[in-house]
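User: Okay, second chain of the day. Same drill as before: sequence in, structure tokens out.
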Amino acid sequence: MKIDFAPLDVPLQRRLQTAAVLQWVYSFIGLAPTCIFLFIYLLFTRFWLISVLYTIWWYYDYDTPSRGGRKMPYLCGLKFWDYLRDYFPIKLVKTADLDTRHNYVVGFHPHGVLVVGAFTNFCTFTTGFRELFPGIKSYLLMLPLWFRAPFFRDYIMSAGLIPSDKDSASYLLCRKGGGNAVVIAVGGAPEALDAHPGTYNVILAEKKGFIKMAMEHGAHLLPVFSFGENEVYDQVENPQGTWLRWIQERLQRVMGISLPLFHARGIFQYSFGLMPYRKPISTVVGRPIKVERNKKPTAEDLDTLHQLYMDELSNLFEEHKGNYGVDKDTHLNFV
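Assistant: Same drill. Structure tokens below.
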């Protein structure tokens, strides 16, 4: 295989963008195991007191992730994230105002391999979320597993990440005064296995938990589609019925996380590696769907609102797909 090396005269700006994305990819893939190893390793060194003191802190701080976390605006607004944004680049597109008197359940589609659009738009301020939606605070849901990793839990909480369980989301949605937006990658880990370039598969047909949660709290629903999310990585072909997909799905059920075999480019060459491609991502925020509070919705109530949500998401996709290079004959495929 011929390796396409990067030229030596790459501008400093692009090098900084690559460094920012490298840090982000490492944070997503390797930082949690590194933190766990460091925590255990320190116990057997003269710095053992660090791990002991952290354990005490962890005990008293255990419920913080499910109580809104600990988002730090200063860290979310660092110049560093501008380099992450410009690498692809990523932009946030607004289609309607959001009333700060309400809370919102934001459905993010598609998941992609590493949900880079969701993180960049809703966990940092680099794409202008605060300016586009003044008075709204966004929180991105992440698998609870990652909040059990020492040190790492504090890092992800600082960006506004909270566990993807009902209690954590409900804590924010039941707050009076409004202004909270809970962002859910509805397709979750299973959808990552379908994140192939050129595909528009959305696992939503049977996903009604977030619909029920919105009804129970009277939180408005907000559909979001991120064009280009599936384009930044290639993935080993794994259609339904193959041995690879069989293994991936069973590992996902056991571990709670999916293991897509993804690849793209490297740091100093463009032929292979885990760095994403420089492909634009445009995250379009749709119009809010008004939801009346209903503490005990019936199956019919859920089906009606669920269908309305799917229709609005489909309309959002159809309305904007031409702006982002999607063929006019391509439509969302609800799985």
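The mean pLDDT is 95.

User: Thanks, on to the next one.
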